[in-house]
Amino acid sequence: MALAKLIGKAPRPQPKPLVGFATDEASRDAIARAAEAHGIQKPEVVAGSIATAVQSLAGLPTPQRLLVDLTDCDDPMADLSALADVCDNGTRVITFGDINDVNLYRTLISAGIDDYLVKPLMVEAVLCALQHQDAATMDPAANAGIAHLVAVVGARGGVGATTIASSCAATIAHDFGARTALVDLDLYFGTCGLALDLETGRGLREALENPDRMDGLFVERAMVRDGENLFMLGAEDDLENAHDVDPVSMQRLIDQLRSEFKCIVLDLPRFAARSQLALLTPPMTVLLVTDPTLAGMRDTKRLHKAIMTAVPAADISVVLNRVGALKGAELTQKDFENGAEVKVDVVIPFDAKAAAVSAGAGKPFGRGSSGCKSVKPLRRLAAQASRLDDGAARVPSLLRFLKGGR
Questions:
Q1: Which end of the chain has less Cβ packing within 10 Å, N or C?
Q2: pLDDT over 90 (residue 317)
Q3: How do beta strands 224-226 and 230-233 pair?
Q4: What is the DSSP letter of 229?
Q5: What is the torsion angle, in degrees rounded to the nearest 10, for the CA atoms of residue 167, residue 172, residue 178 and residue 184?
Q6: Domains in the chain and their CATH numbers?
């Protein structure tokens, strides 16, 4: 087989960091690019299915990570059993195929497979699966010195996600004294700069287009500073400039920011939340911001499920914002939770006066407004999300479930 020719020349070759088997070229390319983005050196990605993997790996040291294609597989469990017979203990396995079936997914997970991805394979999905493998085996103490990520996503437009992101970042930086990066990932319509009365420029676009130049000096020059500890990175790009966020560039940017800052707050556009969240690794918190309306309830349920699927290692907090803005037309918290099938973690009351002051002065919400009733819950949210209150993240419920807990 092709793999045997590649690694069978040495008397006793060392295990490869990653070997992938895929029946189509697009999947092989996605695996190779994701491995590169994850920092895996010289991955082996060859043509073939799980049957090819079984034949090729017989008698050879098993790779540390193995990705196998289940396309056209009549009996996946039988083939996985055959694969287990030729794999060494400790091999981490990710499977993928063309069948989108939750029962198959659950069966594979219960059998010890790390993940099952549905074709067509996306680079972000493969990278996310690799990161989940690391998160599942990482000692919690290893996260102690890693900058915490706070990703803020609005369940729908107008719920105040950018207000929450900018206010949390300002609180973490100015009140808690932590060096903080605020990144507005909407390259065209982001408003974090307006919320803080800062000139955004095109720093984010330049950073993403020049991943090879991305170092501490380059990133800091691309950022706009607000006081001693708050740095903002964003872009107000021309609408005619098409730009897709490359996962490799995004990964390098996040890694660089983590080496420079104590906390990183990301304002994520809703349309890109699934793909961009898949690039993030623990320790991280996702703030899902919504409002107490029927549309907010519906979209919270859908987006919460999508985030849990894309990033099972993330800790998600649901923020019920603008409570009281539409008196008489709002759902109660209990009705909202029952309909959305999620628990509300933080309630932010609406304060019309503070909102007007914030918008007019270009200041984070609640600053400059004495007696603002939103200040205390916002401060509590910033502390919980950044882990600067206790330093200990809650164990994600899905991760507990997959590990056999409750």
A1: C
A2: yes
A3: antiparallel
A4: T
A5: -40
A6: 2-137 (3.40.50.2300), 142-402 (3.40.50.300)
